[in-house]
């Protein structure tokens, strides 16, 4: 059952009509196959035209779709032999950021990697357990620990970014949230092995940058990446979150805008109607892109990789 977004209501109406006709035709009294086929073609065309003209705010809604694949879905579809590693060796475990050793699927090159990413959860219980993908200091310190292991064993690092931002609670500040984010960013830039980051949903603020300071940053076609959420920006500038659509437009949060600004390096196409409509196809597209990028980076020495990262981030906005 597809959850339709507000701007998809015309498509939802067509899909409902198609479902009604199929139910009517089940008794065999009438042959409605021609009408169903006509409506299906009309629905596909309307969906395609809608997604070709998405506004930045509509893309934000797609990036937050509850059925969009999350970290564990990508692990299951794109990797094998995943061995999760928990704890930061300072305070505790953070379920919002997950990582460990894995092997990219054979169809994507089969390379051994360290994979780290945000997990938002898929239902109420899992979202609470994973804190809606908002990492705490121990999560970012765990990421640093895994990156250090990757450097020690010569394994490339893959990160999957999907967070509205790092957790802003008092306890996170007490445990050094800003310092942990800064250390994670520093660890990314200092890695002696290849690193490829992918913005797969929401890339929010320092909580995203801490896992995305790679020499190659990929981004799904309908993902968003920004210094603050559109609602947060609107609350600051206009004192109301109702201006979120205007904020999203002004902030240039889309993959297309960010590629033009050279904040990201590559856009990964999504299935028609977004990754949530065909998660398997979305995972396959991302897996192929990751495999290609890792193959291109593999021959480079550590010094070149570190120089590329430094040059890349210093050049943004120049």
Q: Overview of this structure, please?
A:
With 318 residues, the protein is α/β, with parallel strands linked by helices. It has two domains: 6-53; 59-315, 2-enoyl-CoA Hydratase, Chain A, domain 1 (Alpha-Beta Complex). Helices cover 49% and strands 15% of the residues. It is built from 14 helices and eight strands. It has helices at residues 9-25, 33-52, 56-63, 71-78, 124-129, 137-153, 170-174, 177-190, 205-209, 230-237, 244-251, 255-260, 279-297, 302-315; strands spanning 79-84, 97-104, 112-118, 157-163, 195-204, 216-220, 224-226, 266-268. Strands 1, 2, 3, 4, 5, 6, 7 and 8 form an eight-stranded mixed β-sheet that branches. α1 packs antiparallel against α2 and α10 (230-237) packs across α11 (244-251). The longest helix is centred in the first third of the chain and has 20 residues, at 33-52. It is globular.
Features:
318 residues; alpha/beta; 2-enoyl-CoA Hydratase, Chain A, domain 1; 2 domains; eight-stranded mixed β-sheet; 14 helices; 8 strands; 49% helix; 15% strand
Topology:
Elements: H1 9-25, H2 33-52, H3 56-63, H4 71-78, E1 79-84, E2 97-104, E3 112-118, H5 124-129, H6 137-153, E4 157-163, H7 170-174, H8 177-190, E5 195-204, H9 205-209, E6 216-220, E7 224-226, H10 230-237, H11 244-251, H12 255-260, E8 266-268, H13 279-297, H14 302-315
In a nutshell, what does this entry contain?
The protein contains 14 helices and 8 strands. By secondary structure, it is of the alpha/beta class. Helix 10 packs across helix 11.
Q: What is the structural class?
A: alpha/beta
| Morphology call | globular
Helix fraction by DSSP (H/I, runs of at least 4) = 40-55%
Which regions are unreliable across 5 or more consecutive residues at pLDDT < 50?
none
**C-alpha-based Rg, rounded:** 21 Å
Tell me the β content. 15-25%
Quaternary state reads single chain
CATH topology of the largest domain: 2-enoyl-CoA Hydratase, Chain A, domain 1
Instruction: Report the end-to-end length measured between terminal Cα atoms.
Output: 46 Å
Mean residue pLDDT:
93
The CATH architecture of the largest domain can be named as Alpha-Beta Complex
Number of strands: 8
Question: Sheet with the most strands?
Answer: 8 strands, mixed
Q: Count of DSSP helices?
A: 14
CATH superfamily of the largest domain: 2-enoyl-CoA Hydratase, Chain A, domain 1
Number of domain units: 2
């Amino acid at each position: 059952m597809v959850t339709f977004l507000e701007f998809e209501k015309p498509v939802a109406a067509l899909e409902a009509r198609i479902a009604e006709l199929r139910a009517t035709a089940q008794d065999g009294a009438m042959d409605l196959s021609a009408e169903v086929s006509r409506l299906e073609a009309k629905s596909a065309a309307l969906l395609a035209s809608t997604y070709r003209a998405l506004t930045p705010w509509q893309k934000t809604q797609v990036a937050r779709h509850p059925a969009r694949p999350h970290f564990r879905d990508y692990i299951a579809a794109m990797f094998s032999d995943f061995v999760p590693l928990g704890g930061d060796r300072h305070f505790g475990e953070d379920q919002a950021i997950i990582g460990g050793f894995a092997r990219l699927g054979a169809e994507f090159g089969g390379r051994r990697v360290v994979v780290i990413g945000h997990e938002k959860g898929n239902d109420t219980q899992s979202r609470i357990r994973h804190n809606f993908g908002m990492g705490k200091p121990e999560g970012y310190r765990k990421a640093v620990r895994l990156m250090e292991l990757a450097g020690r064993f010569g394994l490339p690092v893959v990160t999957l970014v999907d967070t509205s931002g790092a957790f802003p609670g008092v306890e996170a500040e007490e445990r050094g949230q800003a310092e942990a984010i800064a250390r994670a960013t520093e660890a990314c830039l200092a890695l002696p092995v290849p690193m490829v980051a992918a913005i797969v949903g929401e890339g929010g603020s320092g909580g995203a940058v801490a896992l995305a300071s790679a020499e190659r940053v990929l981004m799904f076609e309908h993902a968003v990446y920004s210094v603050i959420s559109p609602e947060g920006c609107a609350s600051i500038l206009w004192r109301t979150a109702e201006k979120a659509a205007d904020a999203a437009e002004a902030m240039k949060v889309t993959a297309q805008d960010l590629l033009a600004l050279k904040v990201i390096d590559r856009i990964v196409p999504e299935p028609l109607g977004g990754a949530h409509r065909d998660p398997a196809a979305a995972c396959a597209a991302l897996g192929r892109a990751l495999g290609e990028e890792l193959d291109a980076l593999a021959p480079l020495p550590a010094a070149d990789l570190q120089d590329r990262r430094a040059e890349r981030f210093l050049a943004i906005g120049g």
